[in-house]
Design a protein that fits this description.
The protein is α/β, with parallel strands linked by helices. The protein is 32% helix and 22% strand. Strand 9 and strand 10 form a beta hairpin. Helix 5 crosses helix 7. The structure holds iron/sulfur cluster.
């Protein structure tokens, strides 16, 4: 199995100056994206959980403080110019609000021609247009209704699809989708999720889907990583994790999902998924070595003053909680 991107025991600590408080955005995190098995993996957590830090590490935007970020087995920081160019093509990102990435003074054509030119995908303008039109059709857009228009002349769904086409142009192996549905209405959300599924099933692209929304994570992903204050709470195949959560934090998240029954009030714990949590206050103090969830956990014990390792509770499942120290399979 060949690994496209691998994060090996990565940690990211901010605030390393003399007087600044050190905060751990991510501690000892590992994940591997395999080229041969394109899958959708959801990174779920509230603000300050470390999911955006993971995205930035994968994209090579920031280096880890400790640990390694590997692209095809080689440290990203040590890639040659040619390898880095290939890395930039293989790993693409789709942002939350596509409108923000377009320059309102340029037609959308500009956003599509730029990557074609930068990556040297075409030897003439006609060839570039052909490549762009083919890609637009692949994501369900009619080139005649799309090209030659300014971003504000397209619907939200069309802008999202253009952004998907833009990523697809470079024939990526992995797309990091950073909160792509957090600020959109229900119909656009369905379109975006459908696009992500399409990229995975039709084009064999792995997706890292970053969200604070457990429901959409359950809907489209095969694997899930639940993060809390920079550490993994629970990780595994999405169905068992969501349907039978083991970590007390995941249980709280599941308990906070509103029930479809109109007589059923929203359950306690809803605030745990609130994106209004101030990430800066919610990140981990570097000096603290206990379980990050201890101050909110109903099962906290003396032993929880030391963080639990990742206990394997099933073949594809790990949980960081002392409640499983005696029943873990490994
Ligand atoms: Fe709760 Fe302890 Fe498990 Fe942390 S390790 S989630 S405090 S029981």
């Amino acid at each position: 199995m060949s690994s496209l991107i691998e994060l090996k025991n990565t940690s990211k600590i901010f605030g390393t100056g003399w007087f600044s408080r050190k905060t751990v955005a991510l501690r000892d995190f590992s994940i591997s994206v395999n080229e041969d098995e394109p899958a959708i993996t959801a990174l779920v957590g509230e603000s300050g959980s470390g999911k955006t830090t993971i995205a930035r590490l994968i994209l090579g935007i920031i280096p880890p403080t400790t640990g390694e970020v590997l692209y095809r087995g080689k440290a990203v920081a040590q890639l040659s110019r040619a390898e880095r160019r290939q890395f930039r093509r293989d790993v693409q990102v789709i942002f939350q609000d596509p409108f923000e990435v377009y320059n309102p003074f340029y037609k959308v054509d500009h956003a599509l021609h730029l990557p074609v030119r930068k990556a040297g995908l075409a030897s003439s303008r006609d060839e570039a247009v052909e490549i762009i039109e083919t890609t637009l059709r692949q994501v369900g857009l009619n080139p005649r209704d799309t090209l030659g228009r300014y971003p504000h002349q397209l619907s939200g769904g069309q802008r999202q699809r253009v952004m998907v086409a833009r990523a697809l142009l470079l024939n990526p192996k992995l797309i990091v989708a950073d909160e792509p549905v957090s600020m959109v209405d229900a119909s656009l959300r369905a379109t975006i999720l459908e696009n992500l599924r399409l990229l995975n099933t039709e084009f064999g692209i792995s997706i890292i889907y970053i969200t604070h929304d457990l429901t959409t994570a359950y809907e489209i992903s095969e694997k899930i990583v639940v993060l809390y204050r920079g550490v993994v709470a629970e990780q595994g195949d999405v169905v068992p994790v969501v349907e039978e959560p083991e970590h007390p934090y995941t249980q709280l998240l599941i308990g906070s999902i509103p029930m479809p029954d109109p007589d059923q009030k929203w359950q306690q714990g809803l605030e745990v998924v609130s994106p209004t949590t101030d990430g800066a206050d919610d990140t981990m103090n570097a000096e603290y070595t206990g379980c990050q969830f201890a101050d909110r956990c109903p099962h906290a014990m003396d032993i929880c003053q030391v963080a639990a390792p990742l206990y394997q509770t099933a073949p594809n499942r790990v949980v960081s909680c002392h409640l499983y120290r005696e029943t873990a399979v490994v």
